Input
Amino acid sequence: MYSEKVMDHFSNPRNVGEIEDASGVGTVGNAKCGDIMRMYLDIDENQVIRDCKFKTFGCGAAVATSSMATELVIGKTVQEALQVTNVAVMEALDGLPPVKVHCSLLAEEAIHAALWDYAEKNNIKIEGLKKPKEDIGDEDPVDED
Output
């Protein structure tokens, strides 16, 4: 049902915790399943993500997608992090069962919400960044790029 990578990131999640005085913090949830994901970003003066941590309340797939998402954005620029999609998270985890795809959508939106917070705190515009959704539903489309 779950890949070895999903099980590894669930059993041994990377980058769990909070970043004090984070550059950006984003919280998203799925009211239908009850998952809540909070992402913390530490971004340097060159807009490179130095660190990323998460706190997730939810199922194993939510924890695994949060963990993988942090690994995918650390060391990336803000613009590169914006390009991390739910599909990229799923591929990095060697896939998710169809009923757990919403967890990867949460991970993508949590990154975007944290970037939005960063942009607002610094009064900057990040090209291509849209205001994050408050509730990520199962009916949201999956990018097929």
